[in-house]
């Protein structure tokens, strides 16, 4: 068993591999796929918001896998990738070219995925189980920016709906279905946090829907504070943010997507023209902190479209105002206007993630703030925070096995 110091060195190497897999995706052999059995044994993908694979598909694919030291990797299928999951005996292994580089394991399908709502819908289609102990509910793939041809250029939310129809979680969920699914996931001990999200819809409709969902979650779980994040468009009437808080959401998220104003106008035309514009989104984020509190408001930037210094300037500014600024690795999703483009190299993202964690810590944003405001905990920056602070579960295992002095 390695020492804690040796473990950290191994985790940094594993994190670099995770970054490679996130950028380049991974292929999988038919034998391995049959063995893993996504949707039966392994947790399957649910296309509740975006198609994040490199190509669309009709076969069931797994959602996540774990590297040997425990880092969770979202499965992004790329049949052209140099990385491949294969089967050796009864072991699923990750192969780079012809070299076996790691034995991996796939996340087991959670028990609540097989349960059904009172109207007969599989709960896996209502809320996706994300790492670590998160439930991600997408009420619909409808985005009103499509009507004017003003979708964000990196986004494939409407394309995903067109391709997958009403299958795989791509349909409107009602408040009761969400309340029942949340209750089952909480009762199973599978989650500690949930996020409600969706495409941009008219403001009044969005507000009323979120209020109904909060009430249903409280009713079915018996929890006044269900640790929920309301992911919304920046409301034109900022007083509506008070109503989200009063309804029971602990945190809120408004994703600005791009920090550079000029690039924002070009990449996010709907938000720039019909959503109040960049200045209004920043104003809404700052106001939200006065309502929800320091570290209880989140805003995401799609990293890799604008220069790194611009993204870092945005993350620094947001943190200084008490906002948990985050970034997502830009995936040139199929069906988006930027399909076929290329994102930066893995090292670019690793550097950005290290700098972001330093920004968080400098501005008093704790890991609990980050956990509570994000839909998942398997980003590079989440991992860096936990490796630096030695809070990943494997650290406890190593400490328990260390000889007593």
What does this structure look like?
- The protein has 405 residues and is α/β, with parallel strands linked by helices.
- It has a domain at 30-106.
- It is built from 14 helices and 14 strands.
- Strands 8-9-10-11-12-13-14 form a seven-stranded mixed beta sheet, with helices on both faces.
- A hairpin with a 2-residue loop joins strand 5 (91-96) and strand 6.
- The model has no long low-confidence stretch (mean pLDDT 94).
Helices, strands, pairings?
Blueprint: H1 4-24, E1 27-28, H2 30-36, E2 64-66, E3 72-74, E4 83-88, E5 91-96, E6 99-103, E7 105-106, E8 127-130, E9 134-138, H3 157-164, H4 175-187, E10 193-197, H5 203-221, E11 228-231, H6 240-247, E12 251-253, H7 261-267, H8 269-273, H9 277-292, E13 297-303, H10 308-320, E14 323-329, H11 346-362, H12 367-373, H13 380-389, H14 393-401
Parallel strand pairs: 1-4, 9-10, 10-11, 11-12, 12-13, 13-14
Antiparallel strand pairs: 2-3, 2-7, 4-5, 5-6, 8-9
Helix pairs in contact: 1-11, 1-13, 4-5, 5-6, 10-11, 11-13
Task: Tell me the major beta sheet.
Answer: 7 strands, mixed
How many beta strands in the DSSP annotation? 14
Q: Walk across the major sheet and give the strand order.
A: 8-9-10-11-12-13-14
- Which structural class do you get from the secondary structure elements? alpha/beta
> How big a fraction of the residues is strand?
15-25%
* Mean pLDDT reading: 94
User: Taking Cα atoms only, what radius of gyration do you get, to the nearest Å?
Assistant: 20 Å
Helix/strand order: HEHEEEEEEEEHHEHEHEHHHEHEHHHH
Shape estimate: globular
Distance from N terminus to C terminus (CA atoms, Å) equals 16 Å
Fraction of residues in helix = 25-40%
- Poorly predicted sequence stretches spanning 5 or more consecutive residues: none
Enumerate how many helices there are, as a single number.
14
């Amino acid at each position: 068993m390695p020492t804690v110091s040796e473990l950290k060195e191994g985790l940094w190497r594993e994190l670099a591999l995770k970054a490679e897999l996130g950028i380049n995706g991974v292929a999988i052999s038919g034998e391995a796929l049959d063995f893993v059995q996504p949707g039966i044994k392994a947790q399957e993908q649910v296309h509740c918001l975006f198609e994040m694979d490199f190509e669309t598909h009709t076969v069931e694919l797994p959602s996540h896998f774990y590297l040997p030291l425990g880092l969770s990797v979202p499965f992004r299928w790329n049949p052209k990738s140099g990385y491949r999951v294969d089967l050796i005996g009864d072991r699923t292994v990750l192969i780079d070219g012809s070299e076996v580089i790691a034995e991996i394991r796939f996340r087991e399908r959670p028990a609540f995925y097989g349960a059904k709502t009172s109207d007969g819908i599989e709960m896996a289609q209502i809320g996706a189980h994300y790492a670590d102990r998160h439930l991600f509910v997408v009420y619909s793939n409808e985005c009103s920016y499509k009507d004017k041809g003003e979708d964000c250029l990196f986004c494939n939310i409407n394309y995903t709906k067109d391709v997958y129809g009403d299958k795989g979680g791509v349909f409107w969920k009602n408040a009761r279905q969400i309340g029942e699914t949340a209750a089952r996931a909480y009762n199973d001990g599978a989650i500690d946090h949930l996020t409600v999200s969706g495409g941009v819809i008219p403001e009044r409709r969005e507000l009323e829907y979120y209020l109904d969902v909060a009430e249903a979650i409280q009713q079915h779980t018996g929890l006044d504070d269900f640790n929920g994040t309301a992911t919304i468009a920046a409301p034109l009437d900022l007083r509506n943010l008070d109503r989200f808080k009063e309804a029971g959401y602990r945190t809120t998220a408004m994703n600005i997507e791009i920090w550079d104003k000029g690039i924002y106008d070009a990449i996010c035309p709907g938000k720039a023209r019909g959503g109040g514009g960049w200045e209004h989104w920043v104003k809404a984020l700052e106001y939200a902190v006065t309502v929800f509190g320091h570290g209880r408001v989140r805003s995401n930037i799609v990293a890799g479209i604008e220069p790194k210094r611009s993204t870092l300037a945005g993350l620094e500014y947001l943190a200084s105002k008490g906002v948990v600024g985050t970034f997502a690795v830009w995936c040139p999703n199929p069906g988006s206007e930027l399909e076929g483009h290329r994102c930066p190299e893995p090292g670019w993202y690793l550097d950005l993630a290290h700098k972001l964690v330093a920004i968080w810590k400098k501005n008093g944003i704790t890991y609990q703030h980050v956990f509570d405001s994000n839909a998942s905990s398997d980003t590079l920056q989440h991992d860096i925070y936990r490796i630096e602070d030695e809070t990943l579960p494997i650290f406890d295992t190593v400490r328990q096995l260390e000889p007593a002095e």
